[in-house]
Amino acid sequence: MLGELLAALPGALGQGLILCAEIAAVVLPLLFGYELAKAYGVFERPWPGLRPVMAFMGLGPGAVVPLLAGLFLGILYGAGIMISLSREQGLAAAERLALGVFLVTCHAVVEDTAIFVLLGGSAFFMLVPRLVLAVGLTAWLARRGRARRGA
Amino acid sequence: MPTPPAIVQAAPPWRQALRASYARGGRFLWFLVKMVLPWYLASELLLRSGVLAHLSSFLAPVMGLWGLPPEAAAVLLAGMLVNLYAAAAVAAPLALSWQQVSVLGLILGICHSLLVEAVVVRELTPRYRALTLLRLGLGLGAGWLLALALC
Questions:
Q1: Is residue B8 part of a domain?
Q2: B51 lies in a domain?
Q3: Would the CB atoms of A5 and B37 count as touching at under 8 Å?
Q4: Of A26, A58, B47, B69, which has the maximum CB count within 10 A?
């Protein structure tokens, strides 16, 4: 039993390294893409085209940058941009909560999806439900909040 | 002696991006090997020795709700408590179908790295505990619906 497991160890080690290499081959180009986008200020633009979608979710123009940073960079790597900006832009508590609801559901979408596509998962079924849930839930929250305030 | 005029030109953005991703990429590779290799080896050895099946067999009826084998509970735990790279490393030796990987990818895409990410979300909104519970419910719920649709 133990001998069998020991005999399987070198093969498993090799397979594990191959998995590392596969993940690296997907994520390293993504890292470069994020850095390029950051360097060219993609996350600092106002993106007026997004305003209607943002408004639908009860988010003002001040939330665009933290949202984009979280959506693509992720909660951990985008944390710096997200937190400092939501402070600078003076987002209201309700707006911060809405941003939180959206982002906990849906962040680092490219990277997360890519890891499981590598294992054979379907990008469509992993990504689309997540986006729909995040947008729908945040929009629902905004409407409920507005109804409560009686506006 | 007069100091020569400083010819300091800011590097073009793409070079800044290249430099930044070189540094980050190196750190990422090291992180990946440290993260994936131990989890992959543990999963492979526990699977081959039958320990994983033994430990998880009582979960079979629960995991069946998501169309997953009981061993996949280890993938969910690794993803929720550690991160998606650990989850992928645990999942790789399990020989799952594309439907099963998609269900896992959707659950864990919504609901992963709960402990470290809650720390960041706390900076955004004081209701981070509620948001963490929301992720758990939403992830498992969405995964259940996807399993119903696909399996």
A1: no
A2: yes
A3: no
A4: A58
Per-residue pLDDT for chain A (151 aa), expressed as one digit of tens each? 788 888 889 999 999 999 999 999 999 999 999 999 989 988 888 888 998 999 999 998 888 888 998 999 888 888 887 888 778 878 888 889 999 999 999 999 999 999 999 999 999 999 999 999 999 999 999 888 888 776 5
Contact B110 A106 (CB under 8 A): yes
Structural domain includes residue B7: no
- Overall number of domains in chain B: 1
DSSP-assigned states of every residue in chain A:
-HHHHHHHHHHHHHHHHHHHHHHHHHHHHHHHHHHHHHHTTTTTS--GGGHHHHHHTT--GGGHHHHHHHHHH-TTTTHHHHHHHHHHTT--HHHHHHHHHHHHHS-SHHHHHHHHHHTT--HHHHHHHHHHHHHHHHHHHHHHHHHHHT-
Q: How far is B3 from chain A (nearest CA, A)?
A: 32
B101/A27 Cα distance (integer angstroms) = 19
- Are A104 and B32 within 8 A, CB to CB? no
Interface predicted TM-score (ipTM): 0.91
